[in-house]
Design a protein that fits this description.
Length: about 90
């Protein structure tokens, strides 16, 4: 499991973006193809989210995956590499 801090920051970023769009958890979860229960656990930092789900979440929240990870102190080059991996998998 990753450090709890990254899960907390990711969950906070997801909640901020969802609230910015004035979306309910249910609407966001449905848009991402995730359960409302799982979505709530993401926002509360109770689950480790896969890159595939990060991609689904960012699409539902109309932002780039990096936007949801930007607050965590990960070098931008690593975030960009992770995002490219997701993009390549989508094209297959």
């Amino acid at each position: 499991m990753p450090p709890p801090e990254i899960l907390s920051r990711f969950g906070e970023a997801v909640r901020r973006q969802r609230e910015k769009l004035q979306m309910s958890q249910q609407t966001a979860a449905e848009s991402a193809g995730l359960s409302i229960s799982y979505w709530g656990k993401i926002e509360r930092a109770q689950v480790n989210v896969s890159l595939g789900n990060v991609d689904k979440i960012s699409a539902a929240l109309k932002c780039h995956p990096i936007d949801l990870l930007r607050d965590y102190k990960i070098p931008a080059s690593l975030l960009a590499a992770a995002a490219q991996t997701v993009v390549r998998k989508k094209k297959r």
